[in-house]
Specification:
Elements (H helix, E strand, L loop, with lengths): L2 E3 L46 H14 L2 E3 H8 L3 H13 L3 E8 L2 E6 L1 H13 L8 E2 H13 L6 H7 L7 H13 L3 E4 L6 H8 L7 E4 L1 E4 L2 E4 L20 E4 L3 E4 L19 E2 L2 H4 L4 E4 L9 H14 L1 E5 L5 E5 L3 E6 L3 H4 L2 H4 L4 E6 L3 H14 L6 H13 L8 H15 L8 H12 L6
Parallel strand pairs: 1-17, 5-8, 6-16, 6-17, 9-12, 11-13, 13-16
Antiparallel strand pairs: 2-4, 3-4, 7-10, 8-9, 14-15
Helix pairs in contact: 1-3, 1-4, 2-3, 13-15, 15-16
Length: 448
Amino acid sequence: MIAIPISTLDSETVSYTPSARAFDKDTSLLSQETDPFRPPFMQKLEDLEISPSYLGDLALKTMAIEPTTTSAEIAGLMHLGLMATDQLLQRLCRDKYIEIKGVVGSHNHRYSMLERGWAEVSRIMAQGSYVGPAPVSLNAYTARLGAQIRGRMPATRTSLDLAMAELVLTEGAKQTLGLVASSGRSLFLSGPSGNGKTAMARALVNAIHGELWIPYAIEIDGQVIRLFDPHTHQPIAVSGEDYDRRWIKIAPPLVVVGGELTIESMELTCSPTQRFYEAPFQMKSNGGVLVVDDLGRQRCSAVELLNRWIIPLENRTDYLTLNTGKKIQVPFEQVIIFATNLSVSDLADEAFLRRMGYRLYVMPPGPDTYARIFTQYARKRGLSCDGSLLAHLELRYGKENREPKACEPRDLIDRAIEVCRYNRETVQLTKEIVDLAWDGYFGATVSG
């Protein structure tokens, strides 16, 4: 493994925000009107590639929320076109589940639930309780996601520099991270804690080009997998309504999992009360970055975890199991980053490491890098520091035989600010104030 010193301003607080997206001016995103991946509007029921029987059941469950409603209102809740929705409701009307109460406009009627309809809702809710945007087929999801990944413009050095603007990195590290973002391959980050592994992993998503269309939900054999997660996915505004609204446009997602990770959490989840599936975290990260933080500290062993990833990493596909026992193949299309401060030899064998796209060993910062981090973060907080203060800190590290970490400039400066505010003093960085911050951070010796 190549030892490359890497440091960061803020190893815990760098995260994805839409404004942090990093794109070159000459490779900006296509406009909404020329977006080649914009899903076309589906006017007719037969164009939806989903069983009309399933969609009829979904429409009936949707009607149960508002027993007297219109075709347009149901279309809005199901994210379908008006004509296709009215076709579904006309079928339910012929089956005596609902009745027409009046005409609102073209392909838009007012409907009301009948007793037979309420009985049917009870039956189909026992089979699956999903109500929301109509799903797309698994084949449609796989094909559109793959086309978007293949059609992406590769990351550039400019986009990487913008994404990593708050991090202090070596040229070698930037080269490797740029290759990871451009190729979509995996990355194994190791090294002592507190030196920016998590910050690099979190920031990398901002260097990935290309927003994504993903479906709200996926249907397979009458079962629904809910994919869109407002806690994970950042929606992108879309102009007009001439597209299939079962899809939503998002920024490349960032998913971070840590010590809470279990083997079970990598599978489809379905509770007796929910009665539909929730996509596992690795599926929600498709098209973006998945960070497995603190590898080796999960509730499952590192061997179990890494063995679970071997096939997906090699084939770019994952296999999930429905409650019926049927296995389904789903895309595994994300940059996956393993970060650990444990010994690599204790976590992974060479067979697994060969499947890693790239590896980086993150070393503690040297004196010059530490000074750059300290100075840059001080400037960010509106403060200044001179060479004598940095020399003073270097002496304290040496006197206490303490190895510097990349996160410590931020932590010491933040605590120095707190000291000034507590003492009602002008906020500044002096040797005396920084010494007080040092004692509070590392622990001072108090005599009896």
